[in-house]
Structures are given as structure tokens and as C-alpha cells.
Amino acid sequence: MILVLWDIDRTLVYTGDTDRLVYRELFEEVVGRPAETLPERGTGVTMPLAAKELLRANAVEPARIEELARHIVQRMPEQLALHRHELIHTGQIMPGARAALAAVQQDSRFVPTVVTGNLRGSAEVKLKTFELDEYLDLDIGGYASEDPHRPALVRVAQEKASTRYRQAFTKHSTVIIGDSLEDVRTGREGGAHVIGVASGTTSADALRGAGASHVIPDLTDSQRLLSLIGQVSAAR
Fold first, then answer.
1. Model-level pTM?
2. pLDDT, tens digit, for every residue of 160-204?
3. Given 72, 88, 104, which residue is the final one in a domain?
């Protein structure tokens, strides 16, 4: 069996400015003033690290950053859930994502879940809002709420999947599908092959140059995706 780890943002869904709205609201809530600088879009950085960078970029005293970042992170899933309307009306499912998820789920060789810079609660809000959660085993995913260092989340997911399916999952049986350089780094450092999807802010050439095993323009060709998952997992 092959463990398939889907990235979420700009791979499966686009959420518009909703994440940035949540950062803006929570910064003002915990700091007491508006944020002048917000996290960059489409980087794939985990939410706990992005919260700290938000505080640093807005000149919060270094001694307060750890505590205030914890408050922001704790509140993020609940705050995001308040904006489901914005998610639906300003966001979208990425082209081909639903059919690709269904194709992977229906293939008995594959175990589909996520590896994401989102907290688990935030990931669930996004996937459930767009009704994509049914295609994934979310209980065995790797989430930023478990470790802010994204490459470590590959092993988190592998261990959960190994326990559930009674099979050891290694680099040779784990594939990440994602759109950012951080997805590629996560695979290279964490122990997984990577299929890059040039659907975000990172070009196909950049994904390839960073070390993705294969790069596709989007998720609209499900059969090609299934074939590539099989190919990279067979590589030694």
C-alpha cells in the first residue's frame, strides 16, 4: 500500500483571503492593535511558525512572542469556522481536485490523508466546508498542531498509518502531492517522494528544481496522477 499525503491550500482548495483575515482578526484581538504586515501567501509555512512571524513582522516585543503566538494558534480553528461563508463565496475547489481525490481513494493500492501546515481544526474546517473530507482518512494525517516543523509531519502520518494498516510506511511507500517549495522540502527532509502541482504561486520549473519527482500543471488528469503515484513509489 502507498501512503498518499495531500497538501490542502492551493493544491485541493483556494481559500482567498480568509486565512489572512483570521490572522488579522486574531492579531488585533491578542495584541490590541491592527497588524500592518500579514503572512505571505502560498508559502506552505506551518500556522504556528506563521503566527510567530506575524508577531515579529509587526514589532511585537520578543519576550511576548511565544505566549501571544500560543493564543493565536489556539483560537485559529474556531475563528476560521466563523468565516465559512467567506470560504464558500471567495474560495474554490482547485480544478480537478474532487475527481483526483475520488480516484486516489477508490484505488485499493492507496491510503489517502493529508500533510499540511494547517492545524488539524483548520484543516477540517476547510475540507468539510468544500465537502472534500469524505475522500480522506483525516485521523492519520500530519498536522501543524502536532509539530510546527513540517518535515516532521511525514513521520507523524507514517506512524499513524502504520498502526492503523499494520504496514510499515517509508519513503518508498509515501508520496506527497503539493504545490509549494515547502511541500517539496517536507518530502525531501521528511522521507517521502513529491509530486508537485503547479497550481499555486510556485512555477513548475521551481518545483522541479527543488527536487519534486514529477510536476503536473493541475489535478485535472486523474489517470496520469494515479500512474505517477505508482511510479514514484516504485523508485528506489
1. 0.94
2. 999 999 999 999 999 999 999 999 999 999 999 999 999 989 999
3. 88
Whether the CB-CB separation of 105 and 127 falls below 8 Å is answered with no
Average pLDDT, the chain: 95
Q: Residue 149 belongs to what domain range?
A: 2-14+92-234
Whole-number Å distance between alpha carbons of 117 and 183:
9
pLDDT band at 7 (very low <50, low <70, confident <90, very high): very high
Please give the DSSP secondary-structure letter assigned to residue 211: T
Helix ranges (H only) for the chain are 18-31, 47-57, 62-81, 84-90, 97-106, 120-129, 152-165, 181-190, 204-210, 222-234
**How many other CB atoms are there within 10 angstroms of residue 166's CB atom?**
7
Question: Within a 10 A sphere around the Cβ of 219, how many other Cβ atoms?
Answer: 27
Task: Supply 126's cell numbers.
Answer: 476547510
> Based on the domain organization, do 106 and 148 belong to the same domain?
yes
* Look-up of cell digits 489572512: 20
- The SS3 of residue 204 is helix
Which CATH number does the domain housing residue 139 bear?
A: 3.40.50.1000
Kindly state whether residues 121 and 135 are assigned to the same domain.
yes
User: Based on the structure, what is the number of domains in the chain?
Assistant: 2
